[in-house]
Amino acid sequence: MSPSEQIYERAKRVMPGGCSRNTILRKPHPVYVKHAKGCIVTDIEGKERIDFANNVASLIHGHAHPATINAVGEQLQRGTAYTVGTEIEVSYAEQMVKRCASFEKIRFVNSGTEAVMSCIKAARAYTNKPKIAKVEGSYHGLYDYAEVSQTAKPNNWGDIEHPARVPVSQGTPQGALDDVVIIPFNDTVRAIKILDEHKDSIAAVLLDLLPHRIGVIPADPSFVKALRNWATENQALLIFDEVITFRTNYDGAQGSYDVKPDLTAMGKMIGGGFPVGALSGRADIMDVMNPLNGPARFPHYGTFSANPITMTAGKTAMEWFNQQAVIRLNKLSDLARSAIEEGIKISGVSACVTGAGSMFRIHFKELAPTNYRSAFINSDEQRYLATFLDHVFDEGLLMIETGSGLLSTAMTSAEIDQMADIMLGGFRKVKALQ
Ligand SMILES: Cc1ncc(COP(=O)(O)O)c(C=O)c1O
Question: pTM value?
Answer without folding.
Answer: 0.97
